[in-house]
């Protein structure tokens, strides 16, 4: 079936007859140890004095290694959805990100069925909002992360207060970036990954736990076997170190 | 005066991770709108989120997950039109110095009338419908006056819209965000040079001391 922008979505009475749908298998390969979450996919970063090498354009992006297609490819897939309503591209993107999204959301505390729902919602939003994606602003994985984050904030609010949020609607129209130097999305991605790779194992754990936990201090205290007060200052130190690395790598 | 006081890195991380409650998030957004340094850090921390997502071990979805998403993708989207919310009138009792307007994030929110709560101090409640449990207050404080003494269990985030105040930790001006934890007993005093308008969000329970606690009960 030929797919074209716009009209493609409505070609048939329903879209379920598409061969891709029937043929899709969710593959689960390359399981990664949780401990290795922050391990770089890229080759070890260049020494600090050679920081410019890290900021290469997307084409020389990190070797995809075992973690699937490279970020630049992922960006191209999103563009293909935006420009042509390309279902093949969406299927590939789905295969790569949906199982990671589900894992990510479960890690953030959602039960498996809710994480499944939200992973599907996120991918649906990726399809619908593909034209908003700007590779100069964010890497594909970062953009998809922010969609999942906003949807899960909305979900938590609905659960707690039965309210829908207008936050996401507001954010979409806002572009405060005018006139500001924006790093290429892929460049930022590479720099952030390099900075994370330079953290000590404990500091990487702290950053990861701070990201996933609502109240991370007690979790960090438990995980690293340190008192609560110490955990607080360790978080501060780990993030200060991350900030320094991020600035050094610019 | 340029921005000199910023949210902590941990607050910026919680903002990026989506775990910062709605009230503090609003106050941090107000600060970030005028602070390229914090906008940049938030973007970097969002990229940390992207990196974490990329590195997750896959958890397989239901076998029909893709089919279900595609079936919905083919439906015309029930899309709420994105219309910028209209600016609401400046809350009663708030007088902003010439040339200063409420930032758009605030102008679009319902803010209760500012009522006197102490000599030279008026206070109004900022409505945060997406998280009714959150406490966000707008203060209009006269020269030389102090924010009423209060205690809170969690962090307090104060963003200065105009004017300046000082406390034991320093002097703060427009665009600054001051983060104070429960351990810091601080009584910010507005500088003699002019009125100060600031917005404060609180995590945890908030209590004003003495009679004021009674007077403010209708706010909570």
UniProtKB/TrEMBL annotation, chain B:
Q: Residue ranges of the ChrR-like cupin domain?
A: 115-197
SUPFAM superfamilies per record? RmlC-like cupins
Coiled-coil stretches? none
- Superkingdom, taxonomy of origin: Bacteria
> Under what name is this protein listed?
Cupin domain-containing protein
């Amino acid at each position: 079936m030929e797919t074209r922008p716009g009209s493609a979505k409505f070609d048939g009475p329903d879209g379920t007859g598409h061969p891709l749908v029937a043929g899709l298998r969710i593959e689960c390969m390359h399981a990664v140890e949780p401990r290795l979450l922050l391990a770089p996919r890229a080759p070890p970063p260049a020494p600090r004095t050679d920081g410019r090498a890290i900021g290469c354009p997307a084409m020389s992006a990190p070797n995809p290694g075992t973690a699937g297609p490279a970020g630049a490819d992922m960006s191209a897939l999103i563009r293909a959805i935006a420009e042509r309503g390309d279902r093949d591209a969406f299927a590939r993107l789905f295969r790569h990100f949906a199982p990671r999204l589900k894992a990510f959301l479960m890690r953030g505390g959602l039960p498996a069925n809710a994480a499944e729902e939200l992973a599907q919602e996120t991918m649906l939003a990726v399809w619908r909002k593909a034209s908003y994606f700007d590779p100069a602003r964010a890497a594909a994985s970062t953009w998809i992360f922010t969609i999942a984050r906003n949807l899960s904030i909305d979900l938590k609010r609905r659960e707690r207060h039965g309210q829908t949020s207008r936050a996401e609607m507001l954010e979409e129209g806002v572009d405060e970036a005018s006139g500001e130097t924006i790093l290429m999305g892929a460049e930022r991605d590479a720099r952030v990954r390099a900075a994370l790779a330079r953290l000590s194992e404990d500091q990487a754990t702290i950053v990861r736990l701070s990201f996933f936990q609502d109240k991370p201090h007690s979790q960090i205290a438990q995980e690293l076997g340190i008192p609560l007060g110490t955990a607080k200052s360790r978080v501060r130190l780990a993030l200060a170190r991350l900030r320094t690395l991020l600035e050094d790598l610019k | 005066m340029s921005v000199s006081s910023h949210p902590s890195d941990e607050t910026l991380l919680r903002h990026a991770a989506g775990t910062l409650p709605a009230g503090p998030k609003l106050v941090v957004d107000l600060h970030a709108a005028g602070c390229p340094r914090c906008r940049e850090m938030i973007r970097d921390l969002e990229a940390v989120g992207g990196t974490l997502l990329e590195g997750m071990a896959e958890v397989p979805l239901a076998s029909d997950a893709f089919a279900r998403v595609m079936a919905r993708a083919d439906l015309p989207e029930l899309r709420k039109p994105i219309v910028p919310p209209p600016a609401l009138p400046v809350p009663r009792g708030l007088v902003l110095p010439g040339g200063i307007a409420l930032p758009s994030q605030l102008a679009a929110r319902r803010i209760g009338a500012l009522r006197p709560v102490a000599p030279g101090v008026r206070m109004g409640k900022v409505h945060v419908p997406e998280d009714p449990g959150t406490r966000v207050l707008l203060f209009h404080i006269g020269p030389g006056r102090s924010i009423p003494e209060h205690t809170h269990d969690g962090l307090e985030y104060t963003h200065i819209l105009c004017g300046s105040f000082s406390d034991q930790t320093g002097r703060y001006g427009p665009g600054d965000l001051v983060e104070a934890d429960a351990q810091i007993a601080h009584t910010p005093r507005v500088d003699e040079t002019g009125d100060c308008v600031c917005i404060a969000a609180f995590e945890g329970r908030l209590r004003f001391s003495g009679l004021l606690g009674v007077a403010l009960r209708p706010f909570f």
